[in-house]
From TrEMBL:
Leader peptide range in chain numbering: 1-20
Domain Glucose-methanol-choline oxidoreductase N-terminal: 312-326
Similarity-based family: Belongs to the GMC oxidoreductase family.
Keywords: Signal
Protein's name according to its UniProt entry: Glucose-methanol-choline oxidoreductase N-terminal domain-containing protein
Length: 634
């Protein structure tokens, strides 16, 4: 069967997915004249969490209207390496429309800037990410309760929503055996058309590094999606199991369902500017002030039930700040009248930084094939393209960024872990913790108290040998990155004072807490041990970075600072869940403290960055939030 014939039998979303054309729906709106007089629920942001909520609310309440306001448009969202890209070549990546963010320079990292992206498209970042579909450790979510968060948000409370939020399809027995895929079906069970699967292909050298980690003593887990992930994991991809195309929220929570939902509207190419409380924050829900990107016209949208902000870690706090919700000094600096004092808005920014843990060359490489460099051969590439167009798809183009990673705890990374823990705890006792915070909120009692409590919780979490703090994903190649999963440094998201409608000013502040470098140093030292394993010696692996001449702690720190990647694309936590007196922005039902009819549902509500890539958590968060909202309005 040809791909075109298969797609004729598939859903409308798969038609648009494979052709790159959006299926026209009456539900898509492009100007104010097409909107209803009012809506029951207005959702800001057509991304991973926002579309999940919109789908569930429009399904649960057929008589209530739902509007999603999205800055981007409906687009084809290719996978990371769909044809005709070269994999590892000059044209090795493609994407739907996206935002590009450069942080302020990071002084502790030789003034490097953090580069991060977010989806500017229906589907949000699920439409542009690397499709690595892992889940956090249970110990991450369980630690939140020590910060004043309800136990409803611990692993036990969230696991059902992780299961509900995706549909996992197991590979064939032959593929599973060939590529060492393992899983536990009890970790899955959802029927939502957000797909998760393993690709029917891996590069030939994938098993070399796999064997090396095993020889180093890394425990191989059958499954890492059930909350326990310290060890070596096989990680599925967010892709359709037949076509191997990207599966994202714009398909599973919009295109797949909207044809049967007359109450579900999508307004594209519009910017949510702010929320407005004409009669005070106790008289919500607020109006939503919206700007057309086509005409620049401004107008208000009326919400009868509530407004849900789902604009992401950078844009949700921006909308709140433009609304006068935030710290008095921050708002005054931008000339905005304060409506509600919430100092946590735009604070608590976290992300995963890292560096090259170890890189090498093989002096006695095996006769490995296929390998990425073979994509330079026109015949090989043509065969790969043809294989991708088969049904089911096969070959190199079915892969995204990879399907394997190790997750290692601090106690299993360094024998000096107790010294690192003591340094963290000392900051909570001697009062020095606040000195590592940004100057513009260092003196705020709530934020200082909240940060001190975070450090105490993180010290306990890092002491746990089952709680990962180092991640190393791979698919092929000659390096093993060392990603820090629980950094202590905190950054900010602020309005551009010269233009409030422009992109926010992001200050990631990586390394501002010096203990982060102790953990980075431990991670790199541990990663270098890979080259001492029998498998790597068999192939004559010779270290190229940090390099055999780099041995002292001072030399390694200099390497870490020069070879840093300051964002692995997981910004979060800028409208955090937690008590207001500790810098929290939303309560346990994700309602903005003190603002009636206003809720936040996206990755900005995480109190601490998780030990995982964030897309699966964003889906689960949307599912749980939808349940909370549905129960309240029923």
């Amino acid at each position: 069967m040809s791909l075109s014939k298969f797609c004729l039998l598939a859903s409308a979303s798969l038609v648009s997915l494979t052709t790159g054309l959006s299926t026209p729906h009456a539900n898509i709106k492009r100007q104010v004249s097409q909107l209803r007089e009012s809506y029951d629920f207005v959702i800001v942001g057509g991304g991973t969490s926002g579309l999940t909520v919109a789908d569930r609310l429009s399904e649960a309440f057929p008589q209530k209207t739902v509007l999603v306001v999205e800055y981007g448009d409906v687009e084809y969202a290719p996978s990371s390496f769909d044809p005709p890209v070269d994999w590892y070549g000059p044209n090795s990546f493609q994407s739907a429309s996206l935002w590009v963010f450069f942080s302020q320079p990071n002084p502790e990292y030789n003034n490097l800037t953090a580069l991060s992206f977010a989806g500017q498209v229906v589907g949000g970042s699920s439409a542009i990410n690397g499709q690595f579909f892992d889940r956090p450790s249970r110990h991450d979510l369980d630690s939140w309760t020590q910060l004043g968060v309800s136990s409803d948000w611990n692993w036990r409370g969230m696991f059902p929503y992780f299961k509900k939020s995706i549909k996992f399809t197991a590979p064939s027995a032959q593929v599973a055996q060939q590529y060492n895929y393992t899983w536990d079906l009890s970790s899955y069970g959802g029927t939502t058309p957000i797909h998760s699967s393993f690709p029917p292909f891996q590069w030939a050298d994938n098993s070399v590094v796999l064997n090396g980690w095993r020889e180093l003593g890394v425990h191989t887990r059958q499954d890492c999606a059930g909350g326990d992930k310290e060890g070596l994991c096989a990680v599925p991809t967010s892709q359709h199991p037949i076509t191997a195309r990207r599966s994202h929220a714009g398909l599973g929570h919009y295109a797949d369902v909207v044809g049967t939902r007359s109450n579900y509207d999508l307004l594209v190419k519009h910017q949510a500017v702010r929320v407005i409380y004409p009669n005070g924050v106790n008289s919500g829900p607020p109006l939503l002030d919206v700007r057309s990107l086509t005409t620049n016209a401004r107008f208000n949208i009326t919400a009868n039930a509530e407004v849900v902000l789902s604009a992401g870690a950078y844009h949700t706090p921006t909308v709140l700040l433009r609304s006068g919700i935030g710290a008095a000094n921050i708002l005054a600096a931008s000339g905005i009248t304060q409506v509600l004092e919430l100092p946590g808005v735009g604070a608590n920014l976290q992300d995963h930084p890292g560096s090259t843990g170890v890189a090498w060359n093989y002096t006695k490489p095996g006769n490995w094939t296929p390998m990425p460099e073979e994509m330079a051969d026109p015949t090989f590439k043509a065969d790969a393209t043809a294989a991708f167009d088969e049904v089911p798809a096969r070959g190199p183009y079915t892969m995204a960024l990879g399907n394997r990673a190790i997750y290692i705890s601090l106690p299993n990374t360094t024998p000096n872990y107790l010294s690192i823990i003591r340094k963290i705890l000392r900051q909570t006792v001697d009062g020095s913790a606040a000195s590592f915070l940004p100057a513009d909120y260092r003196d705020n009692a709530a934020l200082a108290r909240g940060y001190r409590d975070q450090l105490a919780v993180l010290a306990k979490l890092l002491l746990n040998p089952k709680a990962p703090n180092l991640e190393t994903p791979w698919s092929t190649g000659y390096s093993a990155p060392a990603i820090l999963l629980h950094p202590l440094s905190r950054g900010t998201v602020r309005l551009n004072p010269a233009d409030h409608l422009a992109q926010p000013v992001v200050d990631s502040r990586h390394g501002s807490n010096p203990v982060d470098f102790d953990m980075q140093l431990a991670n790199v030292k541990w990663s270098r041990r890979l080259l001492d394993t029998p498998t790597m010696k068999r192939y004559g692996a010779v270290e190229t970075a940090p390099g055999e001449a780099v041995q002292s702690d001072a030399e390694l720190l200099a390497f870490i600072k020069s070879a840093a990647t300051l964002s692995y694309q997981h910004p979060c936590c800028t409208a955090a869940l937690g008590p207001k007196n500790k810098g929290g922005v939303v309560d346990n039902k994700l309602r903005v403290h003190g603002a009636k009819g206003l809720r936040v549902v996206d990755i900005s509500v995480l109190p601490l960055v998780i030990s995982a890539h964030t897309s699966s958590t964003a889906y689960a968060l949307g599912e749980k939030a939808a349940d909370v909202i549905i129960k309240e309005w029923r």
